[in-house]
Amino acid sequence: MRKILLTLAVLMLATPALAAVKIIVEDQGGLIAAIKYQTDGEKVRAFALDVTVSAGTIDAVSDYKKGESVPGNIGYGIFPANFARHITVDPATGDVQTWDVNDYTPVAAATDPGALGGLGTNGITIEMGALYSPPEDNSPNAPANSGILCKIKVSGETTVTVKENTTRGGVVLTDPAVAPTVNLTGATAVAVKAVTDCFPGANSAYNDWVLLGKPDCWCAKTKGSGYQCDGDADGIDSGGLNKFRVFTGDLNLIVANWRKKAGDATLDPCADIDHKDSGGLNKFRVFTTDLTILVNNWRKKDAALAGDCPR
Length: 311
Hints:
With 311 residues, this protein is of the alpha+beta class.
């Protein structure tokens, strides 16, 4: 915690210096959305982001850490917009008296230059930085290359969009020689609902899942088996002593649905292993790619498969 004011000044004044940084909004159900980040390996030192909703208001922010990034409490817990307002630093030692201050949140005040209206309005500006020692990117106390920054609670079903707030710094990397390329595709007009879909809206196959009637078998455990995208079309293992996760029952389903298209009332979407059509003019939902995945995982058991479908 030494020299914290100098470090905070660097966070606030750092100039973005090309590394890929994704910002992702993920519907959590219950009118809650997670604001997440993901990098290609470069460390992000600070985020300044505008979060807006298309209807209603943003009423609360939660699930953020406070304070330095230390063992057991890794992450972005320095909030430049509110540091001077709510955090007391011992002038002799440079130590923070306490980070546990109720009003110390990532949400910038509406009166701050370039900030949005704040909680209770349709937009908030969040500022979150990381302070850790040693300060190098390979520090054991540096934030992970992906994670949740915070969660927001909205007043009703809506869509959420996140943009960089460049006036307040945007996305800042620790390496000044590298400029961030910020991908906001997964954070643009993301639906937030009162009830959560079991298939993630950010997944590239989400529209296909909706098209085929939102089949539970495509979903993660416990709605689905967690192995469907690896060939488990029937959702069960083979039973007996072997308990093969991908076996004849799955093959039979693929054969029964071979070359069927969306809109075919007899199509079983659980046989659509790759979660996309064959392309071209035919757009078969069950075709060679689905069979190839099944063959590659033939007779594999649960222990040999990740069980993390969809991915």
